[in-house]
Design brief:
The protein is of the alpha+beta class. It has 10 helices and 4 strands; from the N terminus they run E-E-E-H-E-H-H-H-H-H-H-H-H-H. It has a 4-stranded antiparallel sheet. The termini are far apart.
């Protein structure tokens, strides 16, 4: 969030420069030739102007508060494009260089605002994957874990939305026209549970037997 770290001595502001297309960032140039960047929201509250003296403690506080604002806004931007789990959002923010403290603040804030709900995210994600009818319970569960959803929530959501009979019906579609060996490979590869595969194989075997007796 800054171009240089907080100074180690008292310094004076020599110039102020707006940055960004909408002026959301402010570059503060200091008397030793260094500079740092604040979010305009933090800058506006402080009344900083040319000639303002800043000690290291004050500068560090400004930088910390500004980073929290930048992190919060980035979190909102990410959520506006796609739903995220809490862990998934934390990973995205960390990959963009935000500190652990700023990430905790940003994720906590968007959660308070109702923009972040792991269970709602998990339900939406599972429904979208089930729409094609070709994904097994295990694949859905592991997919949620990969998205950062905690195990308890992942299991609850997948169990609620993908019942055994739902999975069996999907497995029937996936295995249609395949030999038993080919069906096993394909269903296992798509994350269907072993009991579901066994059920479908029994049905195929019974169907083959009935056809042979006719």
């Amino acid at each position: 969030m800054t171009s240089e770290g907080a100074p180690s001595e008292d310094l004076t502001v020599v110039s102020i420069e707006l940055k960004g297309a909408t002026g959301e960032a402010v570059r503060i140039h200091l008397s030793d030739g260094s500079f740092f960047i604040l979010h305009a929201e933090v800058f506006a509250r402080e009344g900083i102007s040319t000639g303002t003296a800043l000690d290291p403690e004050k500068t560090a506080d400004l930088l910390s508060r500004s980073e929290r604002v930048f992190a919060r806004l980035r979190a909102l931007s990410l959520l506006s494009r796609a739903a995220h789990s809490r862990k998934g959002l934390e990973r995205k923010l960390a990959s963009r260089g935000f500190s652990a403290e700023a990430i905790r603040y940003a994720v906590g804030r968007v959660s308070e605002l109702g923009y972040l709900d792991d269970k709602a995210f998990a339900e939406s994600w599972v429904r979208s994957r089930m729409a094609g009818g070709k994904t097994g319970w295990n694949a859905l569960y592991k997919g949620l874990l990969g998205k950062g959803v905690v195990r308890a929530t992942a299991e609850e959501v997948v169990s609620a939305l993908c019942s055994f009979e739902d999975e069996v019906e999907s497995a029937r579609q996936v295995s249609e026209g395949l030999s038993a060996a080919a069906a096993i490979r394909k269903l296992a590869g798509r994350g269907f549970r072993s009991r579901t595969i066994s059920r479908v194989l029994r049905e195929k075997k019974n169907a083959d037997r009935s056809a042979a007796e006719e």
